[in-house]
Amino acid sequence: MYTKVTAMQIRIDHDSTAEQPFTADKKLFIKSYGCQMNVYDAQRMAELLAPHGYGLTDKPDGADMVILNTCHIREKAEEKVFSDLGRLREQVAEGALLAVGGCVGQAEGDAIIKRARYVDIVFGPQSYHRLPEMIARARRDSGGVVDTDLPELEKFDSLPAQTPTGAAAFVSIQEGCDKFCSFCVVPYTRGAEVSRPLNHVLDEVKRLADQGVMEVTLLGQNVNAYHGLDSAGQSASLARLMREIAKIDAIKRIRFTTSHPLEMTQDLIDVLGSEPKAMPYLHLPIQAGSDRILAAMNRRHTAQEYINIIDKVRAARPDIAISGDFIIGFPGETEQDYQDTLALVHAVGYAQSYSFAYSRRPGTPGAAMDEQVPENIKKERLAGLQALLEEQQTAYNNRFVGQVLEILVESKGGKDGQIRGRSPHNIAVNLEGNERLIGSLIRVNIVEARPRSLFGTVQLVAAS
Ligand code: SAH
Ligand code: SF4
Ligand code: F3S
């Protein structure tokens, strides 16, 4: 999975006080892999480099600088970076800068330059605000520039204000992770968990709202562990942050991802139940349904405790869509453990999901565990789990046929004459409609359900 950050996605607006618009005399190509935090980071990199003369291009050929904003979560994601690098080396023009950022940059550091000597810059997810200096150094010296410092929150203070690319925006509110699940690289690639101060986040959201944003998705690896300081120096929870954001008139929808079961406080459940702007969607990964495996994964909760949380959330917000992440084939997983995962999926009923075969990541405790599960068994079990999840997802989507849903139109659709948006429950909705509707909340008649999306017709444009 990767996202090419396109020139269309990044619209650099110039405020009226600026003397001159930026002249983009250099072309920048960014390819982003992995999670939404990387998508957010890639957009910020483009904004950061715009005043330095870099304008986004959709292809690497002819680019003056190429950034691969990478993901380290599974072996495949990492391999993809090195195969892309080999290809890019042939594609980019003589003298163009090639940079590797993101989580592979952080994890591998100068080993990347040792393996691929033509790479000019390596940086991590917490140091990209220093890209202008890195570029200057790389142009001056040969031999490669590596900056994988993990300074807490420094990037947020150094980056220019975010310019929205449409009616929905990501806002990173927390970075890093202290949970150390035994399969996961994130605590090593993103550093320790830190939360941005409450007012910094609110200011960013207000600025976005002033520029037409109606939906914000608050991002963090453990977003519900958010504990940013308020102006009195007190720690503020995600629930409080959401309530404050809800007071901003122009913001109509609030989402957050990714949540951890251990931080699902009653306070947050209450916000989901009582705040109309909190969207009825919760991504709450569990990874496995067997308590033995959950303990070995260091998730620190049982399957029943997870189900109890889901019950509480559903009591507060009966229509909530539950989404989850699963890992199949963690070391020691038996057929019975796998059956426990299927039983949990039956018990919960998922509206959306992401499931993966366990990938052995160097440096994590899981990689050194005995009883690694053979690849063919992982593959077989994953196929069984995915068939069940797909069945649940299709059944979930089907219930909306014949209903009228409020859709925030975000972009053009896949086909000519189509536009695309998302439902409150975070399902992609395609519809025939005029591009002028992009950026508005409209009522849509749902006529067809597909496994991963809905299809509808415009009912009436909401007065705004
Ligand atoms: N912080 C989130 C998840 C972040 S990583 C949480 O705690 O739930 C996103 C997903 O990638 C994880 O939920 C997990 O399902 C998957 N993942 C992480 N490490 C993995 C590994 N070594 N092999 C396979 N999948 C992995
Ligand atoms: Fe990884 Fe676990 Fe942290 Fe999620 S909570 S980022 S899975 S270590
Ligand atoms: Fe990948 Fe880093 Fe996100 S490892 S999933 S890009 S935090």
Can you walk me through this structure?
- By secondary structure, this protein is α/β, with parallel strands linked by helices.
- The chain folds into 3 domains: 7-147, Rossmann fold, CATH 3.40.50; 154-398, pyruvate-formate lyase- activating enzyme (Alpha-Beta Horseshoe), CATH 3.80.30.20; 404-461, Nucleic acid-binding proteins (OB fold (Dihydrolipoamide Acetyltransferase, E2P), Beta Barrel), CATH 2.40.50.140.
- 33% of the residues lie in helices and 23% in strands.
- The protein is built from 14 helices and 20 strands.
- It has helices at 36-49, 75-91, 102-108, 110-115, 131-140, 154-158, 186-189, 198-210, 238-246, 266-274, 291-296, 303-316, 335-348, 375-398, and strands at residues 2-5, 26-33, 54-56, 65-70, 97-101, 121-123, 145-147, 168-172, 174-175, 194-195, 215-219, 253-257, 281-283, 321-328, 352-357, 404-412, 418-422, 428-432, 441-449, 453-461.
- Strands 1, 2, 3, 4, 5, 6 and 7 form a 7-stranded mixed sheet that branches.
- Helix 1 (36-49) links the parallel strand 2 (26-33) and strand 3 (54-56).
- The longest helix is centred in the C-terminal third of the chain and has 24 residues, at 375-398.
- The radius of gyration is 22 Å and the shape is globular.
- The model is unreliable at 6-20 (pLDDT under 50).
- Iron/sulfur cluster binds at residues 177, 179-181, 184, 186-187, 221-222, 260.
- FE3-S4 cluster binds next to helix 1, helix 3 and helix 7.
